[in-house]
Write a structure and sequence with these properties.
It comes from Exophiala bonariae. Its cofactor is FAD. Belongs to the DAMOX/DASOX family. The chain is an alpha/beta fold. It has a single domain, classed as 3-Layer(aba) Sandwich (Rossmann fold). 27% of the residues lie in helices and 27% in strands. Strands 3, 4, 5, 6, 10, 11 and 12 form a 7-stranded mixed β-sheet that branches. It has a 6-stranded mixed β-sheet with strand order 7-2-1-8-16-15, covered by helices on one side. A 3-stranded antiparallel β-sheet has the order 13-9-14. A hairpin with a 6-residue loop joins strand 11 and strand 12. Helix 1 packs across helix 6.
């Protein structure tokens, strides 16, 4: 790492951190070094490190608020990037396929295809005879989308970052400010730490998926069931749990049974010989969530750290993959904006 160049440190090697690091690396190729610091990496298996456990796919969501519209723009940008990767990097773990939504209690935006929902690639409304039987479904749609093998994809991103000259450091930080101790040449830290170093709004959401066309279904009781294939023979992720503030690390047999029962009703062809699932393993992870949602903002520091800034990008819960490339582009924009702001800000 060059001693005469400024350095941007990215904290966290989840999907947001990896994507942000690559995007910053591309923007600052000739002017700054990028250092990625993390406790957990794609080869690790820890409940604290959620990205490799994820069943990751894209699905359109109607947007009716300014924040939702921003996230929809992030999702659209990610969709375009995933399409390019699937065509240019066949080993990256991303594959395009048909996606299905089956909704028991759809909002008007689903029914009327408003809020950007109808703009999804290739979206068509399904006839009732194409709905799952006896599931209380009143709306269905089909569209083109992506699904990915999350462990393969995260490893791909890390390898891409390293091959482009990115540096990595395995370390456990207690605060984001601690990253500035690497030297005076560090003036920007990007905080993709997941739970945000004690952020009072951050909390874990426990998810449990027994691994065994991407389908998303809203059930009459408001719960969700999803079936997400992992390309490159990675099996299929079946899920549908969301348990806020639950720190339990082991899978619950009753949760597995309920999730598999709903998936079998929703899409019977997924069953193996004898009408049974071939369950490879149970996955339990902690999605990093926040009360007010994704934190995406720049914090200008004072006192000892005057002139330095932290760009916060964490707390996406289950939307990290779907928003990743849009969030990364916004992180780059914020870094450039902060750099200009500091340059013209008078010293006090």
């Amino acid at each position: 790492m060059s001693s005469d160049r400024k350095t941007i440190i990215v904290i966290g090697a989840g999907v947001l951190g990896l994507t942000a690091a690559i995007s910053l690396q591309k923007e600052y190729a000739d002017t700054r070094d990028i250092l990625l610091i993390a406790r957990d990496w794609p080869s690790d298996e820890s409940i604290r490190y959620t990205s490799p456990w994820a069943g990751a796919h894209g699905r359109p969501i109607p947007a009716t608020t300014p924040i939702a519209r921003q996230h929809q723009a992030f999702a659209n940008e990610t969709h375009a990037m995933m399409k390019a990767l699937s065509q240019q990097e066949p080993a990256c773990g991303v594959e395009f396929m048909d996606g299905y939504d089956f909704i028991a209690c759809p909002s008007d935006n689903y029914v009327n295809l408003t809020g950007g929902y109808g703009d999804a690639e290739g979206l068509i409304v399904l006839d009732k005879n194409e709905f799952p039987n006896d599931m209380g479904i009143t709306f269905g749609s089909k569209y083109r989308t992506w699904s990915l093998n999350s462990p393969v994809y995260c490893t791909f991103l890390l390898r891409k970052f390293r091959l482009r000259g990115g540096k990595t450091l395995k370390a456990t930080l207690t605060t984001a400010e601690e990253a500035f101790s690497r030297g005076d040449y560090v003036d920007t830290v990007v905080n993709c730490s997941g739970f945000g170093f004690g952020d009072p709004e951050a909390f874990p959401v426990r998810v449990s998926n027994p691994c065994d066309r991407t389908i998303t279904q809203q059930n009459p009781d408001g719960t969700w069931t999803f079936i997400i294939p992992r390309p490159l023979d990675g099996g299929t992720v079946i899920g549908g749990t969301r348990e806020p503030h639950d720190w339990t690390e082991t899978a619950r047999p009753e949760t597995r049974a309920k999730v598999l029962e709903m998936a079998a009703k929703m899409y019977p062809p997924i069953l193996g010989p004898g009408g049974k699932f071939n369950v490879i393993r149970d996955i339990v992870g902690r999605r990093p969530a926040r009360v007010s949602g994704l934190r995406l903002e720049t914090e200008f520091l004072k006192g000892h750290f005057r002139g330095k800034r932290i760009i916060h990008a964490y707390g996406a819960e289950g939307h990290g993959y779907g928003l990743s490339w849009g969030v990364a582009r916004e992180v780059v924009r914020m870094a450039l904006e902060a750099e200009s702001s500091v340059a013209v800000r008078p010293s006090l």
